[in-house]
Structure formats: C-alpha cells, structure tokens
Amino acid sequence: MSVLVNNLTKIYGEQRAVNNISFEAKKGEVLGFLGPNGAGKTTTMKIITCFIPQSEGQVTVCGHDVAADPIEVRRHIGYLPEHNPLYKEMYVKEYLTFIAGMHKLKNKRNRVDEMVEMTGLTREQNKPISALSKGYRQRVGLAQAMLHDPEVLILDEPTSGLDPNQLVEIRSLIKRIGEEKTVIFSTHIMQEVQALCDRVVIINKGNLVADDTIDELKNRVAGEAVITVEFLEKTNKSQLSRIKGITKIVRESDFRWKLSANITKDIRPEVFTFAVQNQLTMVEMSKEVFSIENAFQQLTK
After folding, report:
1. How far apart are CA 45 and CA 154, in angstroms?
2. pLDDT at position 171
3. Same-domain status, 180 and 245
C-alpha cells in the first residue's frame, strides 16, 4: 500500500480541522482528494508530507510512518503545494539542478533534461522563473516534485493557471504518471476529476463523506435514472405509466415529461416502443447525466 491514512485527526485549539478520517491510495491510481474550502484537504496533505504533525491516528507512506520516520517518507514523496514556492530569481534549469543536488541525484544533468522535456519547459529552461507565466511556474513546480522519481506524488491544485492547451498536456502527463505511481490529486475543478481520477475521496468540515469510484459515487447520489421525453402529440400520465420500468412521472407540459427509473435500468428502448405503438411522434428523448459536480454539491452542502 503506498499511502495509508488511519483514523487521522488534527486539532487546532478547539477546532477539529480533520476528524478521524481513514482512506488509502494505491500504486497505479490517481486519487482525487476533494472538499470545499476549509474542509481539511490541505491539512491532511501537509500531514502526509510531514510538514505538520497529526494530533491522533497514523499515516504511512510506502510502509514508513510519517511521525516515526519522516526523512524516509520524504524520500518517497513528491509534493506540489497549492501556493507553489519557487526561487524566482533563479533560472529554470538552474533551479531544477539545485533541487537535484538537494536530493543528491547521481546523474543530475540527465534527470533535469528529462524533466524539462517531460513538463514542456524546453523553450523556457534558460529564463528566470520570475519571467514565467503562472502556467509555466506550475510546470516548474511539477518538474521539481517529480525530479527524484518518487513513488508517491501529492499535487495540490496542479492545473491552476494553465490555459486549455496546457491543461490537455498536464492532464496527459499526470495520467501517464498515475499508471506507475500513486498520485493524490486535489482540485476544485470537477472536469479535472472526471478526466483524471480513478477514485475520489471527499471530505467536508473535516469528516470523510465519500470514498468511491466516480461511477459508484454518481450512482449512489443520483439514486435514479431520469429521462426527458417530448412528443409532438398530447399524451397523459396514465398512458405513460404503462411503460415498463418507470418509477416516477413528472409532467412539464402535455407534450413534455420527465420519466424516472431504477439507476441500473435504461428505459429508453421501452419509451421508444411506447411511442411507436401509440403512433406518437418523438421530438426529443435525452437522459440526464448526473455529474461528479452534482455529487460533490450534494455531499458537501
């Protein structure tokens, strides 16, 4: 197990920033770590990365306890914090070479060149960091996090400030890294979660409220499948109630209806058959897509 969080609690004075949460992040997956502002995400990540101690509970990274063996934990972790701290007076390649020296890498030059190419910094490598856009500074932060080839990557808002083209490139990079390593990925952008994550953990006010795959989470919160259907001719509720599998019918007009069924049941074939048998002209039939954003909102109200 790469990262194991067990009954983790962090107390500041009388405030419980994190309240007895447990989850695990496995090798070969990208774990989305989500929650509203103030939920305790950054506190949890700072504990995992040995920046602050926990009040209670245990965290291990690649078998090493963060409290008992923090130096060994740091060797296995690459961390990109939300507010990316960089030495802005240094040049990109100079900075990465400096970081490689801190990690005591044997082949610093080749590893720095590899990271520069992997994160798309080739054209910017000889510029001072202060001259870079926010998006390119994020790339420098990502490069330093991966420089020592850690087994675990913890990324706090890594796509902040990237333009649409950069987003595609960084998404692809994170996805590729996630095939071989453990990636814990925090963001407020739900499209990023949908595009990148295999599984999501959601916390709210310090409490764990979800730990599921994206599909399981959407099904759990949605509860039912909803179809909107519109006919050219008038119909009524008693007619529609004959469609097999329907659990609820909501009238929007004499022509337009919302039909609900069990989340595992696709009733669209039955609706189409109903229209043919009753000589109704179907103008529209669409299935409501319950997004990760809907699930997040319901779980963190």
Report:
1. 7
2. 84
3. no
